[in-house]
Structures are given as structure tokens and as C-alpha cells.
Amino acid sequence: GLFHVIPRSSRSASGVVEPHTLPLDAPLTVAEKDVNGEVALKAICNAIYAATGTNILQGNIMMDFSRVTLSISSQKETGRTLLTQFLQIAGPQLGDPYPLSWQLLTGVGREPAYLLNIHEAKR
Q1: Pairing between strand 55-61 and 113-120?
Q2: How confident is the model at residue 122 (pLDDT cuts 50, 70, 90)?
Q3: Is 78 in contact with 109 (CB distance < 8 Å)?
Q4: Each residue of 52-80: pLDDT tens digit?
Q5: 110 Cβ partners below 8 Å, 6+ apart?
Q6: Alpha carbon distance 109, 84 (integer Å)
Q7: What are phi and psi of 34, to 5 degrees?
Q8: Alpha-helix residue ranges (DSSP H) falling in 6-123
Q9: CA gap 30, 99 in Å, rounded
Q10: CB burial class (10 A; 0-12, 13-18, 19+) of residue 25?
């Protein structure tokens, strides 16, 4: 299986250690039925923005998710759970021999924003 390293604290500019919560940890409300993967991924990012006010920008994504058809629905699942489910469905539909994984990078622009990269998790 895959695992991700998730920070739970970070240092502020003044050097104080503070709790850190990723926007992917927010419970989301989202519903898309029989849409292509690009629409579904955008819906997840938009739901994260609606719940947290933080932009999730699509970064390095080398897969053509427009070839994937899926449905997503949530009243309380976290963004992390929805993203994981999305990747577990999309990878096999793309015929990808490796599981898909993600990276969430911060430090993009003045507003709170993260850059989402999706890639193969080669063993």
C-alpha cells in the first residue's frame, strides 16, 4: 500500500512551533455523477476552497483524466479521502500499471494556496 507523510506542526516565521492542518483534512460536500476525471478533480479542489478558503491549484499532473469517467459524492468525507478514492478509481481506468499518488506543496503566491501534483508511485 501507499502512505503519505503529513505534517502536524510547523514553525512560524518567528520560530514558534504551531499546529498545522492541511486543507485536505476538511470535511467536504461535493456531488458529481458520471463526469470525466478532470471535472471530478476540479470539484474536489473547489469543495476544499469552499470549506477552507484555500486554493488547491493543479500542478504537475501527467495523466489525462479526461479519459476517466466516475462519480463522487460526499457530505462529510475529507479531501484526503476523496482524493485517494479518485486516484484508486482513475489509475486502473487509465491502464496505469502503478498506483497513483499525490504531493501537496505550499508557498504559492500571497493567498493561501497549495499546488497539487499527481504522479505514479513506482516501486
Answers
A1: parallel
A2: confident
A3: no
A4: 999 999 999 989 999 999 999 999 999 99
A5: none
A6: 26
A7: 50, 55
A8: 37-52, 79-94
A9: 24
A10: middle
The predicted structure's pLDDT at residue 2: 58
pLDDT digits (tens, 9 = 90+) for 75-101: 999 999 999 999 999 999 999 888 899
66: amino acid identity, one letter: S
Q: Map grid coordinates 502503478 to a residue.
A: 98
Residue with cell 479542489: 45
Q: How many residues does the chain have?
A: 123
The owner of cell 514558534 is: 16
Phi and psi (nearest 5°) for 27?
-70, 140
Residue 117 grid cell: 501534483
Q: With left for phi above 0 and alpha for psi between -120 and 50, is residue 114 left, alpha or beta?
A: beta
Question: Distance between CA atoms of 97 and 106, rounded to whole angstroms?
Answer: 29
